[in-house]
């Protein structure tokens, strides 16, 4: 893991814009998203749009897409983001006190504990049987983004100078094939197994292997966290175009609205986070 003490110097300010839509055909929204600011003492839930300094606090943004019968999917995603807000700052404080060894361990522990909670509920209550959720999480601290991921929600990274990159791996068969050059983006989108998750939080999976990584943040960098419903409506090149050109503070809502208009077959959620130039 990168050492935060080696973070490049820049004005530590970020802005964010988040929005979620039920789509045009679903009756309930199984997506949930989260923004929190925290330090060694306090945790603050953030609004859908905002701007703040990284000088005294870290920031976490996350998107979760739930699954399960009846209202179980909606319940699963809400539990996932609530437990993220509860457990991550606590683990961070323990890490700062020397009780854990780093960001990798903190994130791995977080995913494990949420997985255990959803698995327990799924095994204990009939209405929660099979309940599960994805989680794509971005943790911003001066100079670095640390991320954790399970499922088929996504985190994209658009550097100020460079091309867009999908940081996360889709934990699906077509996602694997596309990463290894066996499928095009169009073929992966139309693949019959595109919704078949190979791992998620809960949902009867015995083992969990979250993807955990880090990238350095520089002024002008932009990040997108989204549910798979957004990908169903917008191609990667269009995501890049919007993120490169759109300066509206409500960019999260704009990108969601375009995806719903283009498809809307699933719930759609997006969080756009900017590192201030």
Structure description:
With 277 residues, this protein is an alpha+beta fold. The protein has a single domain (59-275), classed as PPM-type phosphatase domain (Phosphatase 2c, domain 1, 4-Layer Sandwich). Helices cover 31% and strands 29% of the residues. It contains 7 helices and 14 strands. Strands 2, 3, 5, 6, 7, 8, 11 and 12 form an 8-stranded antiparallel sheet that branches. It has a 6-stranded antiparallel sheet with strand order 4-1-14-13-9-10. A hairpin with a 6-residue loop joins strand 9 (154-158) and strand 10 (165-166). It is globular, with a radius of gyration of 18 Å.
Give a brief rundown of this model.
With 277 residues, the protein is of the alpha+beta class.
Key terms:
alpha+beta, Phosphatase 2c, domain 1, 7 helices
Beta-sheet strand percentage? 25-35%
Note the overall shape. globular
- What is the CATH C-level name? Alpha Beta
Number of helices: 7
Question: How is the main sheet built?
Answer: 8 strands, antiparallel
What is the total number of structural domains? 1
Low-confidence stretches: none
> Could you give me the name of the CATH homologous superfamily?
PPM-type phosphatase domain
- Average pLDDT, rounded to a whole number, is 91
Give a count of the beta strands, DSSP E runs of length 2 or more.
Answer: 14
User: Which bin fits the share of residues in helices?
Assistant: 25-40%
Q: How do the helices and strands follow one another from N- to C-terminus?
A: EEEEEHHEEEEEHHEEEHHHE
CATH topology-level name = Phosphatase 2c, domain 1
Report the end-to-end length measured between terminal Cα atoms.
25 Å
Radius of gyration: 18 Å
Helix/strand structural class: alpha+beta
């Amino acid at each position: 893991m990168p050492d935060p003490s080696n973070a490049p110097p820049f004005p530590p300010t970020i802005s964010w814009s988040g929005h979620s839509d039920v789509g045009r055909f679903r009756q309930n929204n199984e997506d949930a998203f989260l923004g929190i600011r925290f330090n060694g003492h306090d945790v603050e839930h953030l609004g859908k749009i905002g701007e703040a300094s990284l000088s005294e606090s870290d920031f976490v943004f996350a998107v979760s897409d739930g699954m399960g019968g009846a209202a179980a999917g909606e319940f699963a995603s809400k539990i996932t983001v609530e437990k993220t807000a509860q457990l991550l700052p606590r683990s961070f404080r323990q890490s700062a006190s020397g009780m854990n060894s780093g960001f990798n361990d903190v994130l791995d522990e977080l995913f494990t504990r949420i997985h255990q909670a959803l698995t327990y509920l799924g095994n204990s209550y009939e209405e929660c049987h099979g309940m599960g959720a994805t989680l794509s999480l971005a943790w911003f601290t001066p100079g670095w983004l640390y991320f954790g991921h399970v499922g088929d929600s996504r985190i994209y990274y658009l550097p100020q100078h460079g091309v867009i990159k999908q940081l996360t791996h889709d934990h699906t068969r077509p996602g694997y094939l596309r990463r290894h050059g066996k499928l095009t983006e169009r073929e992966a989108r139309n693949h019959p197994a595109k919704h078949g998750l190979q791992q998620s939080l809960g949902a009867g999976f015995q083992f969990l292997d979250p993807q955990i990584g880090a990238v350095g943040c520089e002024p002008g960098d932009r990040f997108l966290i989204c549910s798979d419903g957004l990908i169903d409506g917008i191609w990667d090149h269009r995501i890049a175009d919007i993120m490169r050109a759109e300066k509206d503070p409500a960019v999260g809502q704009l990108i969601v609205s375009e995806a719903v208009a283009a498809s809307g077959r699933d719930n759609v959620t997006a969080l756009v986070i900017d590192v201030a130039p």
